[in-house]
Amino acid sequence: MEAGIVGLPNVGKSTLFNALTCSTAAQSANYPFCTIEPNEGIVSVPDERLKRITTYIPPQKVIPAILKLVDIAGIVKGASVGEGLGNKFLSHIREVDAILQVVRCFVDDDITHVGGGVNPLSDIEVIETELLLADMQTLENSLPKAQRSAKSGDKDAKLRATVMEKCQLIVNEGKPLRTAEFTEEEAKVISAIGLMTAKPILFVANVAEDDLEGKGPLVEQVRKYAAEHGASVVPVCAKLEAELAELDEADRQEMLESVGLKEPALGPLARATYKTLGLQSYFTAGEKEVRAWTIPIGATAPQAAGVIHTDFERGFIRCEIYTLPDLETYKTEKDIRAAGKLRVEGKTYVMQDGDICHFLFNV
């Protein structure tokens, strides 16, 4: 799963990306379009449950879940018709699974705002408008061909044309597709087409160092907007995160404590991104490794097994599951089993976040 970091120029996207991925690249100059090709980074998703599991099951290695972040260069008004670096950047957004929109919620006269002044709602509107216009253009260009193909009577072609017609009505009303309801089949068609307003969005409020909890009026504007549109907000101080990224672990912890934070921004941001993407984690635990695996919310036990290896899903027999609280209560898997707390689940079991599993399969 990939999340694309987007926003207007000079809102702190690249600073945040570099901090989150602990990039050692030199900081870019304070100019729009510093990022021409999208930078990509793989980050571990902080999960305190891994540490708790290893207290009772010491492994040779611990493998957290991962998240791929893509830093996409600044979008400007008119991008959908080629302004700035326009369609090139919009095409990068088509390839990600979710959008992390960085919104500037701090005032600094030394950092130029492309709109002439700090106005987070205006920034959000510019991005949303450009994505809507781009989707309108995609549908306008592709729908006639889809309608012609549908006349052949092919079931898939008819579905594609019907979904595109439905989407065109929605975006022509100025509504992003993520606010509408679609069936699973329709959602697959939309994803294949690459319609951008269908992608889930998370707002990242880039705050000043004196508003780390994001309680200022600018962030409140973003929170209100997000609540009205079914999205979430994570306040992050990109400047502070950049400073933290340059410190060793001990100094980083000391600095966090001095400003009243428990962890760097990667933790809450990764967890919020997971939620936005509709993802959750389950664990496997043994002497060789304790590992977090990423699955969609609602995945069945065979589907979860397939994340490890396709043979596990194909030859799935059953899974044995226990919980972290059970492990903390009984200390060992042997004692969990003896207490009757080890559940045996079949093919229809829907995985729960935090399940600790053993899969049995035969191929």
Alpha-carbon Rg, integer: 23 Å
Instruction: List how many beta strands DSSP finds.
Output: 12
Largest sheet: 6 strands, mixed
What string gives the helices and strands in order? EHEHEEHEHHHEHEHHHEEHHEHHEE
Q: Give the termini distance in whole angstroms.
A: 28 Å
Total helical segments: 14
Proportion in helices? 40-55%
Class from secondary-structure proportions: alpha/beta
The neighbouring-strand order within the major sheet is: 2-4-1-5-6-7
Instruction: Tell me what portion of residues adopts beta-strand conformation.
Output: 15-25%
What's the layout of helices and strands?
Layout: E1 2-6, H1 13-20, E2 39-44, H2 48-56, E3 61-63, E4 66-71, H3 86-94, E5 98-104, H4 120-150, H5 155-172, H6 184-193, E6 201-206, H7 217-228, E7 232-236, H8 238-245, H9 249-259, H10 266-277, E8 279-285, E9 289-296, H11 301-308, H12 310-314, E10 316-322, H13 324-330, H14 333-338, E11 343-345, E12 356-361
Parallel strand pairs: 1-4, 1-5, 3-9, 5-6, 6-7
Antiparallel strand pairs: 2-4, 8-9, 10-11, 10-12
Helix pairs in contact: 1-8, 4-5
